[in-house]
Structure formats: structure tokens, C-alpha cells
Design brief:
Largest sheet: 8 strands, mixed
Radius of gyration: 24 Å
Number of strands: 28
Domain AMP-dependent synthetase/ligase: 33-427
GO molecular function: ligase activity, forming carbon-sulfur bonds
Helix content: 25-40%
Structural class: alpha/beta
Distance between the termini: 58 Å
Domain AMP-binding enzyme C-terminal: 478-553
Low-confidence stretches: 568-577
Protein name: Long-chain fatty acid--CoA ligase
Keywords: Ligase
Number of helices: 17
CATH class of the domain at 467-565: Alpha Beta
Amino acid sequence: MKSEFSRPWTARYAPGVPHEIAVPEGSLYDLLESAAARHRNGVALEFFGAETTYGRLGADVLRIAEGLRRLGVTAGDRVALVLPNCPQHIAAFYAVLRLGAIVVEHNPLYTDRELRHQFEDHGAKVAVVWDKVVPQVQRLPKDLGLEGIVSVDLTRALPAGKRLALKLPLPAARRARSALTPSEILAGPHPIHRWEGLLASPPLDQGHPRPFSGDTAVIQYTSGTTGTPKGAVLTHQNLLANAAQGRAWVPGLVEGQETVYAVLPMFHAYGLTLCLTFAMSIGARLVLFPRFDVDLVLQAVRKSPPTFLPAVPPIYDRLAAAAEERGVDLSSIRFAISGAMNLPPETVARWEKATGGYLVEGYGLTETSPVALGNPIGPTRRPGSVGVPFPNTDIRVVDPDRPDVERPPGEAGELLIRGPQVFSGYWQKPEETEAVLLEGGWFRTGDIVSVDAGSYVSIVDRIKELIITGGFNVAPTEVEDTLRAYGPVTDAAVVGLPRPGGGEDVVAAVVLADGAQLDEESLRKRCREGLAAYKVPRRIFAVDELPRSLIGKVLRREVRTRLLNSKTSTPTGRQAS
């Protein structure tokens, strides 16, 4: 993609990084098929020590694809994946894409309400579900169009020794078994099919039509610029382009020799690209973790030392500290890319001392597949900034109220992005799409940035008021609605307050009914019934009233400022209970 704009930032690229790349054609399935042909006997996946070769993965994908076809999945159908990181997740992802169908990723920790909203929106025909959460999916109404559930037992992917250990009549084994799989799966309105049944299918006919570059590959839910979750439509080419940009950005990668740790959830755009597609594109060994656990990661380091670790700042801090305490060598990790929240310089210093490799910060959004900017992996990096645009990527800084008017160099403004990784719009939401996709393919990020004389971009503020906690987006409106549904709460404002080491805590200011007392634990318990754990406020303050604009809109920024300025009291001076 040639640009009519100059790209001065390319002078900051690390040696060996091309200023322009050829955007791949074809589909994401082609990416896996090619890797399987090049590295048939190489290890593609490792899960608690169990290994799957590229050849085996490729064969499994074709069998699962045929199994899904026999369940009625055709091109354009949506297939929901409600899975943690596991080998079945990878196989299901590529099998759906091989059919020309559309993957819809879901957090398996979502509540019934959160899942229902998304299923109502995308109308998936089939859901591939961790058996632990099958009961939740079974509670979805029959009229949503879901025709079947494929139940996945994670323990089937474990090494034989670990599977046997789970059956031992010991308390530890029972706890581990309970965490991984349910005691039984109850019948419900949606037919249940076992993953092993699909895996027993013959391979999909090679003549089955393949998807095209411009076809939709994934619907990834994001809160975007409002509090209402929307499905970002990502095409095969969007995701292929971002994987190729990622490969180009990391000079020194060795085809077929890298080991990538998937500690990021693959139902998140960041984990999906940097683990699920990027790793496959270079024939890497992908070590899968259902959740981040310091002990599990350090155990894996001894068996399969990682070379590339995408993560978030708290993970780097915890791993570096634990490795130093236990004498675990992390020097195999040459490359680490941090995202989702600001990367403190002290984290960079500690990590690079522990590994001898680079830790750099990147920037992106679900709508950009997700990575659009990054710090160079080399001496030209600039800690504290989010770096410079990727190859084939243009940026502009504009007046947020008049996005056709560019801000002068050095002056803060809204960041616009254009590139092959920019999404095609929001699923079935033309008005929301029109609001963020401007003429010429420019995407409005909603983030206020400044660009220094060296072309490095720094985030100043967010127009959108999403809270980023633990690498996940939290929409304040959703949490506020949950708080208001609790009798004693008459009004609420939810904001993010900085936490030590980076990221934010979800914090709420609530107005109580006359005579009511704040019971934080009771209120948090009510929130946990309808919200994922990371969305539940860590702190709750009682206030007399919330600041509002002339039209009555709650001024969350003012709430945030007051809370930041308050030490032992709430914004209005009342003591928090």
C-alpha cells in the first residue's frame, strides 16, 4: 500500500525493518496450511507438556471442519468460540475459517447476561464451548438461532500422566478436576455434540470452497467509543496484514525456531494476533496457558524456554520478580512486546536486566487488528511513548471536534489511523461504523495523542472513557447500570484510577437513597452476579451528588479528578464506609 503521505517515522525503524511490506493475499487458513507444509514434524502447540506437531494440527483442523460442516455450518455462518487457551481453541479457530464461516470469540468467564447480549447480536449457528461453561450457554434462549453446542473437555488435551493424576481420590486432584471440567453436563434446549465426535470425522474435501481475503474472518467484541459492546468485523486480510506487520517489526526472528508463550487470552484481540496468528505464521512452538499463573509459566520455562513473550506490564513485573527469587533463567526471551496499558520505565529496566532482551510498548485497538504502532525493537526505541506507526500505516492528528482539520506538529489532538489492518466496520451497526470510519479509510481512535519531533507518539488522554484493567476494556456505562439496579443506589459514576505499576482500577462513586448506608461488600457481591470479575469496582465511594453538564450528563472526568484529589474521603467530603 503506497501512501501519498510522507512517513518520517520510518527513519526510527530498527535496522532490517522494511518501510513497506507486501500485504498477503488469501485467507488465514492458508497461513496455517503453509506452516504445516513447511514444518510438518515441528511442534506447533504445547499444553502442560503435551505436544502437537504442525502436521497433526493441520489434520485435526480438516477433521473438525468436516464435523462442523455436517452440523450445518456454511460460509458466512457465525461460530462462537467460548474457550480458554487450549489446543482445541486453535483447531476450532482454523476449522471455522476453512469453511468460510466467521469466528466469534468470547471470554469464557462472562456472565449469562454478557454472553446473551453478544449471542443476540451475532446469532451464531454453533458454539464451541469449554464444558465447564456449557450450562451457561444452555441457558441462552432457543430463539437466538443457536442450533448446537460442541462441548470441549480440556483434560483430553493433557498428557496421559496428568489425566491419570486427575482421577486420583485425593483432595488436590479433586480440586484440579473441578477447576477444569464439570461433574456432568445437563441437557438443555440446544443439542450437545462432543469435540471427540467431530474429531472422528473424515477430513474435509480439499475441493471445498475457500474464503477470500476480503471475507469476514472474526467478529471481536469491543466497547469502542461508547459503553455498548459492538462486534468489530475483521477480515482475513486485516488479520493477515497485522501478522505480517508483526513479523516485519521483530528483526532477528528465525523461522521454525521461535517459542512463543500464550499467556494472553486468545479471545482478546491482542492475544489472538500475537499468539494465534503471528506464532503460526513463523512456524513457532506456541506454549498455551489457560490462564496466567507464575508457577506454571516458570515450570514451562525449564522445559521449553520462550524466545518471544507478548504480555501486559503486571505479568512482566511478576515473572521477573519470581524468576529472580527462584533462580530461574529468563535469558532465552529475546523479544517482549507489551500492550493494553501504559508500560512503566521501571518495568522495562527490571525485565531487560532479567532477560538481556528488549521489552517495548505497542499501541492498538480491536478495530486495528489490533496493533498499529510500536516502539522499535532496537536502540531507537523511546520508553514512555507508544512508538511509531507500523509499516504500511499512516497516522494523522486532528481536532477532535473537526476531524477534517489537522493539528499543528507538536499539538495534541485525536489520533486517526489508516492501514491494511483497519477493520471494515461494526457488525450490523452502520451508524456507529460511519461515526468512526472517515472518507479515505481513516479510523477515529478516540485517543488524544501528541507526536514529538522524532515522530514518536505519546498517549495524552482518551476521548472514550473506557477503563483498562488487567489488559481488558471495561465500559463504565455497563457497570453503572448494574450499580443502579441495586436498591439503595440512586445514581452512579464509574471511572478508572491509576494503580501502581500501570493500568487502572475500576472505581465507583454512588449516590445512595436517603437514610441508606454504603455496604461495599454487598454491592460488590451484586455486581459479581452480572459482571465478569475484572469489571467489579475495587473501591466504592458514597457521594452526595455527581457533577453534571448543563444537559444533565454525568461528568466522569470531573468525578475522576475529585477521586484522585481525595485521600480519605469521597469527592463531596463524606467518609467512605
